[in-house]
Amino acid sequence: MNCQRKEEIPISVIIPVYNVADWLDVCIESVVKQTFAEFEVILVDDGSDDGSQDKCRQWAQNDSRIKVIAKKNEGPSKARNRGLSEAKGKYVVFVDADDWLDARYLELMYRRAVETEADIVECDVFRVNNETGKRNVRVSSGVMGVDDTLEAHMKYGYTAIWKCMFNKELFTKHNVIFPDCHSEARAVYALLLALSGRIENVHEPLYYYRTFRRGSLTSKPRSGGEDRSMTGVQAFEHLLAGFRQCGLYAKYEKLLQEIVTYKMSDLLAAFFPRRKAEDYRRLAGNYELFLAQRFPAAPKYRYLTWGGYNLNRILCNMNLLHDPYCRFNFSSIISLMHPVQEEMICHHKNRYREIMLNREISGMFWQVLEEMAPDFLFVDFLEERFDIVACNGGYLTKSDAFDGADCPIEGGRTIARGTKECESLWRESCLAFIRQIEARCPSVRLVLVENYLSEQKGDIHGQEPFENLEEIRSANKLLKSYYSFFRENCQDLLVVEAWKSEYYFTDEKYEHGAIPSHLNEIANREIAGMAEREIGIWKA
Fold first, then answer.
1. How many CA atoms lie within 13 A of 229 on its CB side?
2. pLDDT digits (tens, 9 = 90+) for 294-315
């Protein structure tokens, strides 16, 4: 009788465990104290040597729902596959051993799965900084409460498997396994979505994902000694092979090119501030080669970005590989055309911002422009709203990044935006910028993206104005004059009038804060489409 009941367990919770003794108790306690009690827990100890294995055994002794599998260290993918092979539940969930669950996680996810007969149910996620305790919400699918279509979900969906409840047959019926490589979730996520008869979402953060923890499963090297210059490539090979194996490749071939390109761009964004320059360039080059070989008909334009950070978020929705090495943010044309004359280095707690600040100081833009020889240079002027600091024989931009940095400046003089001095300096610098582009890289096509600070924040159901609306409008009036000046003085310019987007407002729930210089993903995707059409018309 007991054996019969075990075969009918609704849910199997699979937890790979490797050297997480400091966090394991919090994780397991959050599982055993779920409001839904009919489940089994499979702890797969992957050769821990820090006492994690003893903790696993202690928990198993105290709770009959817990089973421990001890194996040699082979990495999280093989641990998950082993747990999957032992699972008795109709549904499976995967939990990382340094994370934890809301007490209602299993109840709400299972209820949605049963009521809708869904093959996959997802929830939103709290991303918790392990160093500061600060947390923000990451939405699993959709934008501003509107669920994505299947195709958009496959491309844009948050590719983490631990915020999902899966019908186990998705794995067993189609022989889906996690490959032993970096980015193993990216190797199966889109395929599992494509195989699903129905996908549902619980629009509530129920999973707590711990970020910035040293030695996490995410950062742990794979046992196979994967070549760092090919990181992630094996995962995408596995993804394409999985679609072929399941007879779905022809149906999704174009979308797969977009998915792989978009997810590779994600990886480049993650690795750019973390790897040495030479290592990073090899990786980016190998990604370009992979895409050219697997999808020879796909667009292959290369571009540089000069402007606000949200311009990156817009362009990442274009069907191109997006290389952060080719981005220049937190800088202004004045500082570019009048760099400081003394060698100096700025430090910032945010590594990406630190890189951008030191690029401004070194005048690296011209080096990258000539090195990469891009087809397009995308420009917006959102960073041109900041004051300028005169120092060390040149100028620096008093941007958000600058204000949060440690820069060795003595006696710098601030020149306010909107003053006659700043306006004269900007116009002279702008003309010099245009001429330098024409001289140094005559083949590049300039694309002006007319972005402004958004005046409102909200969602698709309604918006409200920012409190400092008059300040925003004053800045936008200045930006409009800059765009007009640039258009009048730059020949053969392509223009994307981003402000014409129907959804030109800030997402009030944007995970990094609702500020006027950020839009929302519906607007970003729409503006990216405008840019692609502008480029397509010109190419034609």
1. 8
2. 999 998 899 999 999 999 999 9
